[in-house]
Design brief:
The complex is a heterodimer of chains A (258) and B (832).
Chain A (H helix, E strand, L loop, with lengths): L24 E12 L6 E12 L3 E5 L6 H8 L7 E6 L2 E2 L5 H11 E4 L11 H12 L5 H10 L15 H14 L4 E5 L7 H18 L3 E4 L3 H5 L3 E6 L2 E7 L3 H7 L1
Parallel strand pairs in A: 3-8, 3-9, 6-7, 7-8
Antiparallel strand pairs in A: 1-2, 1-4, 4-5, 9-10
Chain B lengths: L1 H10 L5 H34 L6 E5 L10 H9 L5 E5 L2 E5 L6 E6 L10 E4 L7 E5 H6 L7 E5 L5 E10 L13 E3 L1 H7 L7 E5 L7 H18 L4 E5 H48 L1 H9 L4 H37 L6 H5 L4 H28 L2 H6 L10 H26 L4 H38 L5 H9 L4 H39 L4 E4 L7 H9 L3 E18 L2 E11 L18 E5 L7 E7 L2 E10 L7 E4 L1 H7 L4 E9 L5 H10 L5 E3 L2 H43 L1 H9 L4 H37 L13 H18 L1 H8 L3 H6 L2
Helix pairs in contact in B: 1-9, 2-7, 2-9, 2-11, 2-20, 7-11, 7-16, 7-20, 9-11, 13-14, 13-22, 14-15, 14-16, 14-22, 15-22, 16-20, 16-22, 20-22, 20-24, 22-23, 22-24
């Protein structure tokens, strides 16, 4: 893949490939290690991990607390530095990028949905959704924006502040913010961690349809089997290593490895 | 709890920096003012006591007696009293130096062995009437040395040529001591000041330090001698009593002086209280989790509160102690460097240990008081709530705030309107005098209402200003200023108070300058008038005058010596002067000439009070004309006519004067010396020296007052830094999220800078407006007796204030901005 500005790449169009036959590699980790601390007391949150994520795929990363699953997500989203190895997004190698370049890459090509504290409390829903593009000084595709907010069912919540929204509604706004920039990947860190089961279901359906209908690539960290089961691929991390990499696993299979 | 307090102070020392700095600045300012005031008083006391050093008897005129007493005859009598070994006659005298700026030097006689002994730096005492000593200050200012010759004029304008025989050392004495500038022999002073009357006669006994009884005996003898000679109206006291009396007299005025000196430090301290309150808010908020943990493990709310208050006391004590030390040393240094007292050590001793202790206690108390509310709030936070992190919501304006805003808004408008009406509706000085206390009271109330209003609406203003922004950093900064409206308001008001005071002073001073300039434009519109010698200007003189640098405009005016005659009843008065032709005089005048038609003559206003008939004569040619009184153009002895009037008279005119307008009145001395170089026979007159003196006085006034007020602004800046630090601490997760979502470090930094700018610049602009209002009201209500007050905006100074505010806000946002931009998104977001 050429090292051109990711922004100019066309988003996947046409028929969405089935999850079992994914598009090209979007995000790639090669021999990635992430050590915390120094010398003898250093702890490896990631220990030589190599993995590829494919376009149009909904991948779930699972693992117990401290397994390194969140570190993996942070690393592939360019939030955290790595100790060795290489990380790339759409062929762009993170190593050597200045903080500003990496920030712009995040802003333009990566969407984020966190467990909580997703939204800036002083901005209303609409301003939150448009925040990354405003930071970039870009115009948002008005049709895409309309389509996303209506399909997420938040059209009548756009002028509410985060404190006036329920947890599920907040996650929808966060998802809308991630989708509206048509990023290369959306990373979601326990996006349902703070929600009740009904809202969890809703949010998962929305993530699912973003992949199925819009061809979005989503990488999600979760510790919940049921949540993981809605994905196309489950990667299980343990002690900083990939313990299993299952494509379209059954509930049984997940239970066994996680 | 002791170990915990110690550990906390040690651990959080850095966080308390802002608090300590604010407290220290305020306390140091108060301490310095106390020391300076004390030193000043000490200096004055030394001077007062010093003038009687060595005097056993003091003879002074009895001002209560009906007739004005003349002690001239008493001098000889006192001198002849047995036991009197030496006398000293003090009097008010002086000479005018023959220089362009005609400075006035005070003159006295040289002292003797025991009374008013002068220490000579070099040279010897004068022996003849034309020999003098000069003070070292004067010697330095006018570059004099032993042997130099001074040309001067005495009070009656007679020239004096005086030779300097020695230089008196005064540097070690206090500057406030009114040592004379030049010293004559007794005979010399009498010759330089004919008709001079003694103010006081000091007499010494056979010892410089006689006990009271001996002084009393001598006083009795002097009294008897004066009575015998029939001299009335003289009061005879001992040296001791005279010293006591005069010290008593200055006690009241020195107390008033100290109070006045404390005015500015008290303003700074008020601003500091506001700032210190917000610093505590920052610290306690940052430590909310730590405090909650204490609560969880069993500390009661009361214990937490006590911990906070004890910390406030400790911090207040440290800040006050630093402030006292810095202030006392600094004040002493300033006092001794400024020559108020003879040395650093003397200045140090002018402030008492009790004063220092009281200041320390007050500083600590006020700091603690400022920390009380934040401590109360911190201790009220429920343990769980704090551990979980407080849910953040956008602060909405409460009903109470709306009510406060509306009520204080109405009050501000009403009180402000009434104040302005009273100040502007009269020009009568007596009425102004009568109204002044009312206007002052109303203005103070208006200020209070305005501050209350701002505390409610300032955050709304900053948010509204933010609506016009296009950059996302700017818009975020604007909404951030309303998150904690109370804090934004407190920070802004600290800036507002400082700026309002500075703006008020500069506005008042500029108006004073403009008003006096306008008055001068009318009464003395011509900077310099150079008059030709009787033989007329030579061509070279004219071209030399033309070429002098620093002249904005000059005009060669044709004219001739003339006499104006005006009849009053049956009597005819004649007045000599110079006829000048108005050939575009306006071009070299400040202000403009009075309207003048053919057949009319502008004459000095002292000559006629209203337009009247008269005649003007040049040599033997006379013409009947209408005399118009002129305030400025005609000066003291000019008769201004139109060219047509001059032509009709048929007299021969030649260049007689050159009128000049200077580029910078401050540079007039240079211009005058240049003019003198082109001919010593040229006469120079003009109002430029007065104009320049007024400018200088206003400038010095503004500089001193603004300098003193700047301390308040400095404290307010500490407040801005502090508020931003709080923002950064509170929003570290949010800043982490912004970084994750693609905000660059630069954008984070500029968001913080915008926040600082919004608060600082909004408060500054509001402060300038308020300062203009209070300055205008103050200036208009002053019973000055000026017929026409001119209000003027000091644009340049205001521009400087705005630039300083912008610069300071940017500087204040550097550290918080850097900290915010370094927030790691991972760490910030992981703190769930």
């Amino acid at each position: 893949m050429s090292n051109i500005e990711p922004r100019h790449q066309s988003a996947p169009t046409g028929p969405i490939p089935p999850a079992t036959a994914p598009g090209g590699v979007v995000s790639s980790l090669r021999g990635v290690s992430r050590l915390y601390g120094e010398g003898e007391t250093a702890v490896a949150a990631l220990d030589g991990v190599s993995v590829d994520f494919y376009a149009g795929q909904f991948a779930a990363i699972m693992g117990p607390s401290g397994s390194g699953k969140s570190t993996m997500l942070n690393v592939l989203a360019g939030l955290d530095a790595i100790t060795s190895g290489s990380v790339s997004l759409e062929g762009v190698e993170f190593r050597g990028l200045s903080d500003d370049k990496l920030t712009r890459l995040r802003r333009d090509r990566i969407g984020f949905v966190f467990q909580s504290f997703n939204l800036i409390p002083t901005l209303d829903a609409k301003a939150n959704i448009l925040l990354p593009s405003r930071l970039a000084g870009h115009k948002v595709d008005e049709d895409l924006y309309q389509m996303i907010v209506s399909s997420l069912g938040i059209t009548n919540r756009l002028h509410h502040f985060p404190s006036q929204l329920s947890g599920g509604q907040q996650q929808r706004v966060a998802l809308a913010r991630a989708l509206v920039a048509a990023p290369a990947i959306i990373v979601a860190d326990e996006p349902t961690g703070n929600l009740d089961s009904a809202s969890t279901d809703e949010v998962l359906s929305l993530l699912r349809s973003a992949v199925d209908d819009l061809g979005q690539t989503i990488i999600m960290v979760t510790h919940d089997h049921h949540v993981a089961q809605r994905s196309d691929r489950v990667i299980v991390v343990r002690d900083g290593r990939i313990a299993a990499d299952l494509w379209k696993p059954s509930a049984e299979q997940i239970k066994q490895v996680a | 709890m002791g170990p915990l307090i110690r550990a906390n102070l040690k651990h959080h020392a850095r966080r308390y920096t802002a608090t300590v700095v604010a407290a220290a600045i305020a306390v140091a300012f108060v301490a310095a003012a106390l020391v300076f005031g004390g030193a000043l008083n000490q200096g004055i006391r030394d001077q007062v006591a010093g003038q009687y050093t060595g005097a056993a008897v003091v003879v002074s005129p009895d001002y209560e007696s009906a007739e004005w007493p003349d002690l001239s005859e008493a001098v000889g009598i006192v001198e002849d009293v047995p036991g009197v070994t030496e006398i000293y006659v003090s009097s008010y005298s002086g000479i005018e130096l023959d220089r362009p700026d005609s400075p006035w030097l005070s003159a006295a006689t040289i002292g003797g062995q025991r009374l008013h002994t002068q220490t000579l730096e070099s040279g010897t005492n004068p022996t003849t009437t034309t020999e003098i000593l000069v003070s070292d200050g004067v010697a330095q200012r006018y570059e004099l040395e032993v042997g130099s010759v001074l040309t001067a004029k005495n009070r009656e304008g007679n020239p004096l040529d005086l030779t300097v025989t020695g230089i008196v050392q005064t540097k070690q004495q206090s500057v406030m001591v009114s040592v004379a500038d030049v010293f004559f022999t007794n005979e010399g002073l009498a010759a330089a000041s004919p008709g001079l009357q003694p103010e006081e006669i000091l007499a010494a006994g056979d010892n410089a330090d006689l006990p009271s009884e001996v002084q009393e005996n001598l006083a009795t003898a002097v009294r008897a001698a004066l009575d015998e000679a029939g001299i009335e109206g003289a009061v005879v006291t001992t040296g001791h009593d005279a010293t006591e009396e005069s010290l008593k007299a200055i006690n009241t005025s020195s107390a008033a002086l100290t109070l006045m000196l404390l005015l500015f430090p008290v303003i700074a301290a008020t601003v500091a209280m506001i700032v210190i309150g917000t610093t505590f808010q920052v610290i306690f908020r940052q430590r909310e989790r730590e405090l909650a943990l204490l609560r969880v493990i069993g500390a009661t709310g009361k214990q937490v509160r006590r911990l906070m208050i004890m910390e406030s006391v400790a911090v207040g004590l440290v800040g006050s102690a630093i402030g006292v030390v810095v202030g006392v040393l600094g004040g002493s240094a300033i006092a001794s460097a400024g020559g108020v007292v003879s040395g650093f050590a003397v200045a140090l001793t002018s402030v008492s240990i009790v004063q220092v202790l009281v200041l320390l206690v007050i500083g600590t108390l006020l700091t603690t008081l400022a920390g009380f509310r934040p401590a109360l709030r911190a201790s009220r936070v429920a343990p769980v709530q704090a551990l979980a992190g407080r849910p953040e919501s956008v602060a909405q304006m409460t009903r109470k705030q709306v009510v406060t805003g509306v009520v204080s808004g109405v009050l501000t408008a009403g009180l402000g309107g009434a104040t302005a009406y009273l100040a502007f509706s009269t020009t009568d000085p007596d009425l102004k005098m009568e109204r002044f206390p009312v206007v002052l009271g109303l203005a103070v109330l208006t200020a209070a209402a305005l501050i209350t209003l701002l505390s409610a609406v300032l955050p709304l203003i900053t948010r509204a200003v933010g609506k016009w922004g296009t950059s996302e950093s700017y818009r975020l900064a604007a909404v951030n200023t309303v998150r904690n409206p109370g804090r934004t308001a407190a920070t802004g008001i600290a800036v507002f108070i400082g700026v309002t005071l500075i703006s008020m002073v500069t506005f008042g001073a500029e108006s004073l300058r403009a008003t006096s300039a306008a008055a001068l434009d009318r009464s003395a519109p011509i900077d310099l008038v150079v008059s030709a010698p009787p033989a007329g200007f030579t061509d070279k003189q004219l071209s030399d005058l033309e070429a002098i640098p620093g002249i904005a405009a000059s005009l060669v005016v044709d004219g001739a010596p003339a006499i104006v005659e005006v009849s009053e009843g049956s009597e005819v008065f004649g007045s000599e002067g110079t006829l000048v032709v108005d050939s575009g005089l306006d071009s070299v005048m400040r202000g403009s000439t009075e309207a003048l038609s053919d057949g009319e003559v502008l004459v000095p206003a002292w000559l006629v009070t209203a337009a009247t008939e008269g005649s003007v004569c040049v040599e033997d040619t006379c013409a009947d004309v209408t005399l118009i009184p002129s305030e400025g153009t005609a000066g003291d002895d000019r008769f201004v006519v139109t060219p047509a009037t001059a032509t009709n008279m048929g007299v021969e005119l030649a260049p007689t004067q050159v009128w000049m307008q200077l580029e910078d009145p401050g540079q007039y001395a240079d211009v005058i010396s240049q003019i003198q170089e082109s001919g010593s026979d040229l006469q120079i007159e003009g109002a430029v020296a007065l104009r320049s003196a007024i400018d200088q006085i206003v400038n010095i006034l503004v500089m001193v007052v603004v300098g003193l007020l700047a301390v308040s602004v400095l404290v307010a800046l500490v407040g801005i830094t502090n508020t931003l630090s709080l923002s950064v601490a509170e929003r570290s997760r949010e800043n982490g999220l912004l970084r994750a979502l693609g905000m660059t470090r630069k954008q984070v930094r500029s968001m913080l800078s915008w926040e600082a700018l919004l608060i600082a610049v909004t408060s500054t602009l509001l402060g300038l407006l308020a300062g203009a209002y209070f300055g205008a009201v103050g200036f208009m209500s002053l019973p000055t007796g000026v017929s026409e007050s001119v209000l003027a905006v000091p644009w340049v100074q205001w521009l400087i204030i705005v630039v300083v505010a912008i610069g300071a806000a940017l500087v204040a946002s550097i550290v918080p901005g850097r900290r915010a931009s370094r927030v790691s998104p991972v760490e910030a977001l992981a703190a769930e």
